[in-house]
Amino acid sequence: MSAWYAMDAAETAERLNVDPSRGLSGAEAVERREEHGANRLPEAPREPRWHAYLRQFQDLLIVTLIGAAIVSFAVTREWETPAIIVLVVILNATIGFVQESRAEASLEALRKMLHTEATVLRGGAAMRLDAADLVPGDVVDLEAGDRVPADGRLVSSSSLEVQESALTGEAEPSAKSAAAVVAQDAPLAERHSAVFMNTTVTRGRARMIVTATGASTEIGQIAGLLQQTKQAPTPLQRQIDTLGKTLALIALAVIAVVFVLGLLRGQPIGDLFTTAVSLAVATVPEGLPAVVAFTLAMGTARLARRGAIVKRLASVETLGSTSQICTDKTGTLTLNQMTAREVYLADRRFTVSGHGYSVEGRIRSTDDDPPDSQTLHVALVAMALCTDAVVRAADDVVGDPTELAMVVLAEKGGVDVAALRRRHPRIAEVPFDSDDKFMATFHREDGRVRCFVKGAPDVLAARADRYLTADGRRPFDAAARAEYAAANGELAEQGLRVLAVGVKDFPALPDDADLKSSLDGIVLMALVGIVDPPRPEASAAIEQCHRAGVQVRMITGDHAVTASAIARELDIPGKAVTGAELDELSDEELARQLPDIGVVARVTPQHKIRIVRALQDSGAVVAMTGDGVNDAPALRRADIGVAMGVTGTEVSKEAATMILTDDNFATVVDAVREGRGIYANIVKFTRFQLSTAFGFVLTFLAASITGLAGGAPFTAVQILFVNLIMDGPPALSLGVDPAGPDVMSRPPRPRDERILTTARLLRILLAGTAMAAGTLAVLAMAPPPVAATMAFVTFVFFQVFNLVNVRNDLRSAFHRDTFSNRSTFVAIGVVLVLLAAMVEWDGLHAFFSVTNLTAAQWLTCAAVGSVILWLGELVKMILRRAGARP
């Protein structure tokens, strides 16, 4: 590998055969891509599909079950039971394989959505390309916020600083310079003329020549080490794993009792062994951790379709407990499209409807008279001509946002801006200057030269000697000036940005040198109040947050007056403070006042970090939005860092937990809703599985103690059929249950809440007890020839009704939303069809040890199984009346 950093830029360009001012040609780039391959870091070899499938059989319990089938056949010489056990094992392995495959496919889709782009010079034209398409010799432009897409040698730079801590361990950004030439043996941190892949530009801009891509980059050299890092299980997955192990110990103890009592009764040891192992597999939720991961992965895929890319599965858990959202204003709560809201004329005032750059909207007089004022029309003409912005469509605009607002306003007032500009082309102009604070354009009209001026109200007022009314031009005297100043102040207090427009006529175009000085004595025509309006959907999203117990706080670099106006419009409660005022508060005072603060304006990144820390110290789970390089520390500090996908820098996206593809606040709220729904689904699945497991354990324990059915109420094959219900499609359908309508009508759950709360544990025990009692009652009371079959069918019906019961903790199962998840009822239908085939098809009787039932017996089994549904309804009603929350 050449030490490019030890050469000057010219030598680097010569060796790589590229002109830094034009870049590579398309043909050269294709040739080099074929030679060097894609610019991607080395990835660990993908596990072959066949290996992933065979791995499903490595679980200790599965191996034990296969062993049990072999022992059972060796002892009894009967093949039916071992064959069914093997079939169930294969089905279980297939389900696990499909879960893993779908989860991996979802994560791969997310990885593709998070690709990096770079600004590349090809054939003399700048273009945005996927970083994977870069090749050695490519010329790339960098600016603050970019992630460096490959290793490169700088050819030009301006105040460039790059954060290289991931490579060098240096906390401070490294200063870079294209002029630097260092020794060949210089350590990585001292190669000041070079930049490296996956580091981030924190300041300045530069142009570089790509010197290495993919595995040849510095980070590519250590990619093998990165591949060895495994993702740690999430707290939720650890909870599930602990639950499974605890239940396994309990189940194994019960199985030991069943086995010993069976031996004492003289039952064949082969049958006992097969039954014991089958019961172990059925009662131990060995697939629960995998299903949780599957549910989280499916949830991230749904979030991505909604416009929220969650980078880490663990974050989905956190989303559901978010209690504070600290959001930026511009582009997140607002459209980031300046819009005229009010027009002030000397004799009338007008309000303007519509949003953003769409010309849909109306100009309406505040006194309800038609807005056909000639004075208004002249003012709109001034706004159309004294601007450079172009509006072709709402999503196809060019120019300054404030000017775009004025052009759209003119269109709403009936002015055909394009035609007007063709009729009255600009013949001269005074461009906007930050010192003068105005712009003027000159046009020919009716044999004279008319000049239109727009700018700061106080600047135009100082140059005005008259103002325009419906009755003509009047002197701009003290009274008029006072009225004008009052109107300007009133618009500003509403958080509007105020601009003034004026006009002056000349018999001929002044000399170029006199253009600016000729603008004294203008005629003031209008004041225009402009604002970046709230997104139409933001208000409803914030209202959802209020109902959900989530506090929304606006944190912005904008002025307090403007921010407060938007907050009032969006119904964000609380007072407004500035960053300077925060600096005057101690940490204790800040913690005390934060609940009453709704807007923090003129903030720095340090203010954002301090706010996040204070909220977290109070026990809140905080989501923070940001888009700039300097927002990265606050995004990392927050529980959920949210970066903007459209306007956000690569640094902010790298630091964030979640990326919004539409920069829309409503998408954050959608993500919170989805997070709550995902967590609720995991709770449902866990309740369902553990209820079934406890029902099994209690049924077998009671039967063994009482001697009912010889201590074995179900055969091994029947046990494994029910296990398919626990781990198969019916239970999995709970993992994709849509979020209920009440999911955003309750407070956020505590971040440390356990899946098995005391209330949920009691309901699991109650459900399991009902299953055992009902099944044993049928077994004891039904006619002996059909008792075992009826008991088995009853237990299956218990699972079917419990599947409906657990879909909501408090809402009745007879609510219309119960039927919102079609997959649940399709899965139930499949189970009932299989059950009916087992019982009514004579050819399966020997396999499943069942016999035919009459219609009355079927109804009896269903009626007993439905007890769990009615019992669940009674518990829900009691909890609702007690004011319990889900």
Automatic annotation (TrEMBL):
The chain crosses the membrane at residues 57-75, 81-98, 246-264, 276-297, 693-714, 720-740, 761-780, 786-804, 825-844, 856-875. Residues 3-77 form the Cation-transporting P-type ATPase N-terminal domain. Its EC number is 7.2.2.10. One of its GO terms (molecular function) is ATP binding. Its main location: membrane. It is a multi-pass membrane protein. SUPFAM superfamilies: Calcium ATPase, transduction domain A (SSF81653), Calcium ATPase, transmembrane domain M (SSF81665), HAD-like (SSF56784), Metal cation-transporting ATPase, ATP-binding domain N (SSF81660). Residues 29-44 have a biased composition (Basic and acidic residues). It catalyses: ATP + H2O = ADP + phosphate + H(+). It is found in: Cell membrane. It is an enzyme of class 7 (translocase). It comes from the Bacteria. Pfam families: Cation_ATPase (PF13246), Cation_ATPase_C (PF00689), Cation_ATPase_N (PF00690), E1-E2_ATPase (PF00122). Residues 18-44 are annotated as: Disordered. Keywords: ATP-binding, Calcium, Calcium transport, Ion transport, Magnesium, Membrane, Metal-binding, Nucleotide-binding, Translocase, Transmembrane, Transmembrane helix, Transport. GO terms for cellular component: plasma membrane. InterPro entries: ATPase_P-typ_cation-transptr_C, ATPase_P-typ_cation-transptr_N, ATPase_P-typ_cyto_dom_N, ATPase_P-typ_P_site, ATPase_P-typ_TM_dom_sf, ATPase_P-typ_transduc_dom_A_sf, ATPase_P-type_domA, HAD-like_sf. PANTHER family: CATION TRANSPORTING ATPASE, CATION-TRANSPORTING ATPASE PMA1. This is P-type Ca(2+) transporter.
